[in-house]
Design goal:
It is a single chain. This protein has 443 residues and is mainly α. Helices cover 66% and strands 6% of the residues. It has 3 domains: 129 residues, MgtE N-terminal domain-like (MgtE N-terminal fold), CATH 1.25.60; 119 residues, CBS-domain (Roll), CATH 3.10.580.10; 171 residues, Orthogonal Bundle (Tetracycline Repressor, domain 2). A 3-stranded mixed sheet has the order 1-2-3. Helix 13 links the parallel strand 4 and strand 5.
Length: 443
């Protein structure tokens, strides 16, 4: 499949496309593959390629595009094109793209919907985009708890949505009662009430549950889907394995991009000014932290002038603290994401990480001290850097635990900003420890 995407990208970049050739290539690819190909070409050629895509395929492709890519493309379309594009939009698709649409375009899309889809949209839009209530699948098998098995079997013959292995039962008010798995249904007698077949172990997901938590609940259930209910136990829809896999994929991609201060919705060929502004913010933050570290170094200017070896060895201290801190930070961020870290185990975890930092600090202090002694033939300098290494690695362990926990409490993504703060803390701690000890013991 990757070779087909690459071939489509090559064709589109070199403008070797007619409507027939483009749509033939698209017919062999999924909408997300086509979206990927469009995002991989410059904006001018992307607009030309879009004009050659069949109208029937455009909406599915648009939904699969990243937020920024979608915005850039929609800017090029006039209102009549947008109205045509949204003719067949359903609630799930509109909820997927609504954050990247201005209100005017959302209104246009809503006018194209039937009442049922509009109701689904209004039901989902009240939830944040990281909550399962926003991403409910409404294609599911629902039956009254009062019917017989034979009636439920006739229901199966009509249509069976993907990721379906059970029938959901509701009462007269639409409240969820339970679920009946297909294997029990097929083995039962036709006259038997379906309520007798309810699986007592079948669980549900509250509509206000976070997406990652919902994916975990589904994984533990060993089912392909779980019902989603509101606070009144009214059945709203379901959360299935396809949505769970998409949740994990987006979560993984977001974490990778956030380490560089980027958004997973960023467009590869976004305008230069927009990209420069986005990245410039994080470069500016990094510059401020670098100046802060430099200010602490400036306090020891006289010491550096007298002992040049300290300036030579400073990167060693900073590097060791940075690596040790990032190891702890990564571990804690993962623990927070998995819900493993609580107030009750934080103290024990901090104690363990400090012990690990102390052990590694002593080990590497000896190694670096010996190398420094051999290099500069100064036992005192070897002791100074050894002590500084121990202090900095212990400080890195402390910061690696406390910084992400604090950021999480403040509702700031620790994967996004934790490394910037950690680097600043370990740099300052390392420089102050190294140069301070150098001032006391060498000058």
């Amino acid at each position: 499949m990757h070779s087909q995407v690459a071939a489509l990208i090559e064709t589109l970049i070199h403008n070797e496309h007619s409507p027939e050739s483009v749509n033939k290539a698209i017919s062999e690819l999924t909408p997300d593959d086509v979206a990927l190909a469009l995002e991989s070409i410059p904006l001018t050629q992307r607009r030309q390629a879009w004009a050659n895509i069949k109208q029937a395929n455009r909406l599915d492709i648009l939904v699969e595009m990243r937020g920024e890519s979608r915005q850039l493309l929609l800017k090029e379309l006039d209102d009549s094109e947008i109205e045509t594009l949204f003719t067949d939009v359903d609630a799930e698709d509109l909820l997927e793209i609504t954050d990247s649409l201005p209100d005017r375009l959302v209104d246009i899309a809503l006018k194209q919907m039937d009442n049922k889809q509009r109701e689904y949209y209004q039901q989902g839009i009240v939830y944040d985009d990281d909550v399962v209530g926003r991403w409910i699948d409404h294609e599911l098998l629902i039956a009254s708890q009062s019917i017989r098995t034979s009636e439920a079997l006739r229901l199966l013959k009509k249509s069976t949505p993907d990721y379906t292995d059970m029938v959901y039962l509701v009462n007269r008010t639409g409240r969820w009662v339970g679920c009946v798995k297909f294997d029990k249904l097929f083995k039962a007698q036709g006259h038997e009430p379906i309520s007798n077949l309810i699986d007592e172990e079948c669980s549900f997901i509250r509509s206000d549950t976070e997406l990652t938590k919902a994916a975990e609940l589904l994984e533990r259930s060993s089912l392909s889907a779980l019902p989603v209910v509101d606070e009144n136990q009214v059945l709203l829809g379901r959360f299935h394995a396809g949505l769970a896999m998409e949740t994990w994929r987006l979560e993984h991609e977001a974490q990778k991009m956030s380490t560089a201060g980027l958004n997973e919705e960023s467009d590869l060929f976004a305008p230069v000014k927009r990209s420069a502004a986005t990245r410039g913010i994080w470069l500016g933050i990094n510059l401020l932290t670098a100046f802060l570290a430099s200010a602490f170094i400036g306090l020891f200017e006289a010491t550096l002038q007298q002992v040049v070896a300290l300036a030579v060895l400073m990167p060693v201290v900073a590097s060791m603290g940075g690596i040790a801190g990032s190891q702890t930070l990564t571990l804690i961020v993962r623990g927070l994401a998995l819900g493993q870290i609580t107030r009750s185990n934080l103290k024990s975890l901090l104690s363990k990480e400090l012990k690990v930092g102390g052990l590694n600090g002593i080990l590497w202090a000896i190694v670096i001290g010996v190398v420094t002694l051999w290099w500069f033939e100064s036992p005192m300098l070897g002791m100074v850097i050894g002590l500084a290494i121990i202090i900095n690695i212990i400080m890195a362990a402390l910061s690696g635990v406390l910084i992400p926990v604090l950021l999480d409490k403040l509702r700031i993504d620790p994967a996004l900003s934790g490394s910037v703060i950690l680097t600043t803390v370990t740099d300052i701690a390392g420089f102050v420890a190294f140069l301070g000890l150098g001032t006391l013991l060498l000058i």
